[in-house]
Amino acid sequence: MTWYEFFLFVHITAAVIWLGGAFTFQMYGAVVRRGGDPGEIAVFAGRAGHLSERMFVPASLTVILAGIALMINGNWDWDQLWVIFALVIFAASFLTGVLVISPMAKRIPDAGPTTPAGQALIERLFTILRIDLCFMYAIVFAMVVKPTTDDGWTIAIAVVLLIVLTLVFLKPLLAQASRSTSSAPPAT
């Protein structure tokens, strides 16, 4: 086995853990939320957050480090469109996790996970996580297809799809925010 093959194995294995875990959380989370039990939803959200710190962060860092090792060991050029796209999307996902998801998850215990405010926060969190999952699939798309500037339309389609999915997933939250601000009493 070459070093390249070893890094490729590590890269793919970590990506499977990262992406598969996120997909499983979304599917199981949907089942739990449809059940409508605020206590069960709160327990699931807490456990998901706890497991995420111990599974997703190490897996995502392993993906990026093994990817860098593949780039160096495989003599890939850093200026290729698929590499740039994947790194930009990874950075967006990482920053979303650090700046949005983590602070939001840490507010759940203070809001009271079974209260209406806590349940709304959990719903917002799962919406952001669903969007982040779409970003992860976009990275896998770029890694598999490896589009170049000659077929940049494939990246354009992926970007448009990401924008559309983000808007679709955000629509219920935006509608809810609009309803809550319109039902709020006017400021005096």
Question: What does this molecule look like?
Answer:
This protein is an all-alpha fold. It has one domain. It is 86% helix and 0% strand. The radius of gyration is 19 Å and the shape is globular. The model has no long low-confidence stretch (mean pLDDT 85).
How many domains? The number is: 1
Sheet with most strands? none
Number of strands: 0
Q: What series of H and E elements makes up the topology?
A: HHHHH
- Please work out how many helical segments DSSP would assign: 5
Span of the ends, CA to CA:
72 Å
Low-confidence spans: none
Outline:
By secondary structure, the chain is an all-alpha fold. It is 86% helix and 0% strand. The chain is built from 5 helices and no strands.
Summary tags:
single chain; mainly alpha; 5 helices
Break the fold down into its secondary structure elements and pairings.
Layout: H1 3-35, H2 38-73, H3 81-111, H4 116-145, H5 153-183
